[in-house]
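Below is how a single chain appears once it has passed through the pipeline. First comes the sequence as given, then the structure the pipeline wrote out for it. We keep one example in the README because the format questions we get most often are answered faster by looking than by reading.
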Amino acid sequence: MIIFLAEASTPLLNASWLFQKLGMLKTTLFKLCALLLILAFFVFRVILSPYMLWHMWTYRAQWGENRDQLFWFNFLIV
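Resulting structure:
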């Protein structure tokens, strides 16, 4: 379930895109959304990715008989 945290920046990305399409690039709301997007992306994608890889490697024995295939599939997703 921890891998879903990587998607925490997606709503901010969608909001930033919407503000851009509406021509709201100079508004405070767009700037705040962009700042939060950068922060969320850094935290949930850059910082959390090594932890997710460590967690997958540590608990790979619990995945059953197909654990090598599942590990590499999840590794590619992260």
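Helices lie at 10-21, 28-58, 67-77.

See the next section for the split statistics.
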